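#dry-run=false #mode=assembly
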Amino acid sequence: MLKIYRLDDADIARILEGAQSKAKEMGVAMCIAITDESCNLLAFMRMEGGKIPSITIAIDKSYTAAGTRKATHDLAEASLPGNPVFGLTSTVGGRIIVIAGGLPVVVAGKVIGAIGVSSGTPAQDLLVAEAGMVAFEKG
Amino acid sequence: MLKIYRLDDADIARILEGAQSKAKEMGVAMCIAITDESCNLLAFMRMEGGKIPSITIAIDKSYTAAGTRKATHDLAEASLPGNPVFGLTSTVGGRIIVIAGGLPVVVAGKVIGAIGVSSGTPAQDLLVAEAGMVAFEKG
Amino acid sequence: MLKIYRLDDADIARILEGAQSKAKEMGVAMCIAITDESCNLLAFMRMEGGKIPSITIAIDKSYTAAGTRKATHDLAEASLPGNPVFGLTSTVGGRIIVIAGGLPVVVAGKVIGAIGVSSGTPAQDLLVAEAGMVAFEKG
Amino acid sequence: MLKIYRLDDADIARILEGAQSKAKEMGVAMCIAITDESCNLLAFMRMEGGKIPSITIAIDKSYTAAGTRKATHDLAEASLPGNPVFGLTSTVGGRIIVIAGGLPVVVAGKVIGAIGVSSGTPAQDLLVAEAGMVAFEKG
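#status=ok
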C-alpha cells in the first residue's frame, strides 16, 4: 500500500483566503479553484464578477498544475509550434492549460494539490495564485 | 434591459457555512455546490472524505435546481418510465439529476441560485441542502 | 495535510493476476480495470476476445466502486425507477455503473482502490472481480 | 472476408515488460498504454508516481500511433501552423497527439497495434516506447 499526502480542510481554507484577499486588494474578481494531488476538485470560488469561462479555466489550471507538477506558465514555451510538446494544450479534452495562474502545492518535494486562478490577466491570475501559496506556507 | 437578481458573496458564504455545519453535525463528509440563477458555478467545497463522483453530482444537482427552478427530487416522479418527462435524466449530457439534494434559492418568487449536495444518502444530502437554505434565510 | 492510502504496484499485479487466472479458468475473456482511491486508472487488461464496450465499462465499474465505496451491484436496487437514486446511472457522463463486476478494495475501513470487470455475464464479471480481491488479501 | 493481425496476450506482456524495465532503469514512473490495430485499448499500466493527465495522454498516443500508422512525433511537423495538417491536434476530441512517445507496432508492413508512453519528457517517453518495441521484436 502506498501512503499519499493531500491538502486538508485547513490548508484549503488558508489558500482560498489568501488568494481572495489578494484579489480584493487588486480589485479583480477572480475564479479560484483548488485541486488535490489526484487532480480532483476540492474547492472553488467565483467572486462577484468572475468570468463564466474562467470557471472551467481556473479548475483546469489547477488540474494541470497538480497533474504536471509544474506551474502552468512553465509549460508554455515547450508547447509552442515546433517545440517538444506542441499540441499539449488540446490533450485530455483540452484541459491542459499553459497560461499563467496555476501552481502546484509542493511539500517536501511532493505535490499535494494545486491552485488555479482565472478572470484577470495571466499576470494578475498568477499574483493571486502566489498569494494563495504564501498563505499556505504561513500555515 | 432586464434586471437580474443573483446570490452575492455574503449569501454564498452563509449557505456554505450552514450546509457544512449541518454535515459536520451529522458526521457526513459532503460535496456542496452553489450555482447562480444562470446555472453557472459560484462555489464548491469537498469536505475531507467527500466522494469523487459526488463532485460532479453536487455541481449537477445545483445546476438542475437552478435550471428547472425545482427541488431535484420533485423531478423524480415525472421522470419515471411512462411519465411525461421520462428520459430527462439523460438530457444535457446527463447533467439533470432527479435525486434529492438540490434546492433552488427563491426570493419573491424568483430563483436567484441553487445549492446541490452529494456524498451521503439522498435524505442526508437533502438535510444538508435545507440547512444551507435556512442559513440563507436567516441572513 | 491528509494522509491517504492507495494500492501499490505489488497490489495491482496481485489483483490483476488473481482476476485473470479466474477468467482463464472460467474460459471467459475479460476486460479488467484497477483504479486508485481517487478513481483514477492504475491498470487495465483486455484479454484476447474481451469486448470493446467492456473497455469503458470495466474502467467505469472500477471508477464507480472506488467513488461510491460500494460494490457496483449494491447500487442497482436503489437506482430502480421510483427508488431514491433513480437516474444515478446517467450521472457523471454515464460513468456510474450499477451492474455487477465492480468492487472496492477496503483496508481497515478505508477504500484504497477498486477493480472493475466486464465482458461476461454480470455474475461472471463479479466472480472474476472477487478472485482479484482474494488474491489481494492473500498478499 | 478480411483476415486481421493483432497483438496477442504474449506480445502485450512482452511490450509492457520491456517498457516498464526501461522506465525503472531510467528512474521515471510512466503511464504505458497498448492499443490494438483498431485503436482500442488492450492494456494500460500507471507506475507508482505516473501522472494523472498522462493516463489519457498515454492512451491517446497509442490511439494516434495505431490510427495514423506513424510514430506520434512524425506528425508534429505537418501539424505546425501553415503546414498541411495544421489543426490535427484538436481533431477526434483532441485525441490525436503529436508529441513523442507513441509508436505503431508493424509486422510485414502491417500495423498490428501501438504503444503510447507519457509522464516523462517527450524524449524519455520515446525511449521507453522504443524499449517496448525492442522487447516485442525479440519475442
